[in-house]
Design a protein that fits this description.
Elements: E1 2-5, H1 12-21, H2 38-42, E2 50-54, H3 62-65, E3 69-72, H4 78-84, E4 90-93, H5 104-121, E5 126-132, H6 145-157, E6 162-168, E7 170-171, H7 179-185, E8 187-190, E9 198-201, H8 203-216, E10 222-226, E11 232-233, H9 235-246, E12 251-254, H10 257-266, H11 271-285, H12 304-317
Helix pairs in contact: 1-8, 5-6, 7-12, 9-12, 10-11
């Protein structure tokens, strides 16, 4: 059984869709029957048992809700994870944003401690977590959310489970928060230097990487799995691609770190969490995401142009 946390989130929802609709059970080969197409056989294949932890089951698609075991509550709650991890072989782990948390330790390691204990209590063998690039770089020790995320990875690893941290750069999908500005004003903002190139990944590729690990489970020990996207991009590169795909001018405006902090707190994010975002942004400009070389194994397939065509453009036109 695989347990999925945040099944209605950016990555968790895509992972749930993959596991429900595309992946046969671990180790099972599709049956070859004369005269049948693969699509006709798919519904008959035995699949992994899936369980989700969700605060509001009503946010799950009805079709998914009918096919998974649902545990209602927060996966930061000891009683909830105790129920959810009973009989589980593997867990997909993501912490929620924790916008009002008093510290970044509370957002990451604090939230994870009950689950870490439950991994051991219930004999969970494999855990895949969403984390960040930066381990081993000079900026990693002062990178806000990234520093706290790496500490969470270490906490999970110390339980003795086989653990893989998906080491991610910034998400392409974060631009969806600026759809209104892109549509109405042709502007998107960030704090990075306009011409500094860095990796960026689509959340659907991160979900696909998680699915591969959760279904295989032949791996042991602890480690990171970088998901780097196929190319490094600058904010100016992104602006050019968005302009071409949307058929209208889009430009990048760099926001100061002070303005970024003010905007975050103005949207109700607590001081500690906002400061963590600012520290992370500063560290990214200092090379936080530059420590892993792109190879066929670390590259993910979705280009920024493809993402703009298939995700951003429909959102802007909606």
């Amino acid at each position: 059984m695989i347990v999925i946390t945040t099944p209605t989130g950016q990555i968790g929802s895509r992972l749930l869709d993959i596991l429900l609709n595309e992946a046969p059970a671990r180790g099972e080969e599709p049956r070859e029957e004369p005269g049948e197409e693969r699509g006709e056989r798919r519904g008959e294949e035995r699949r992994e048992e899936l369980r989700v932890i969700v605060r509001d089951p009503g946010r799950l698609p009805a079709a998914a809700r009918a096919r998974v075991d649902v545990v209602t509550g927060s996966h930061g709650d000891a009683e909830v994870v105790d129920r959810a991890f009973t009989g589980a072989d593997a867990v997909f782990w993501v912490v929620p944003s924790g916008a009002a948390a008093p510290s970044l330790d509370a957002v990451y390691s604090g939230f994870t401690r009950a689950a870490a204990e439950a991994f051991t209590t219930h004999g969970v063998r494999h855990v895949v977590g969403v984390s960040a690039l930066g381990r081993g770089t000079p900026a990693a020790g002062r990178a806000g959310h990234v520093t706290a995320s790496l500490a969470m990875d270490d906490l999970i690893a110390r339980t003795g489970v086989a653990y893989r941290a998906l080491a991610n750069p910034s998400f392409m999908d974060n631009l969806l928060r600026q759809v209104a500005s892109i549509r109405d004003h042709g502007v998107f903002t960030d704090t990075v230097v306009a011409d500094r190139r860095a990796p960026a990944a689509a959340t659907r590729d991160i979900a696909a990487a998680a699915a591969g690990l959760l279904l295989d489970r032949s791996w042991t020990g602890t480690g990171e799995v970088p998901v780097l996207g196929p190319e490094d991009l600058s904010a100016n590169d992104m602006a050019r691609t968005m302009s071409e795909v949307l058929g209208r001018p889009v430009r990048y405006e760099r926001q100061s770190l002070d303005d970024c902090r003010a905007a975050l707190t103005g949207h109700g994010i607590g001081e500690a969490v906002a400061a963590g975002y600012v520290d992370m942004a500063r560290a990214k400009d200092d090379g936080l995401d530059d420590g892993v070389r792109r190879t066929p194994e670390t590259a993910s397939p979705t280009t920024f142009r493809t993402w703009c065509e298939e995700v951003l453009k429909p959102a802007v036109q909606a």
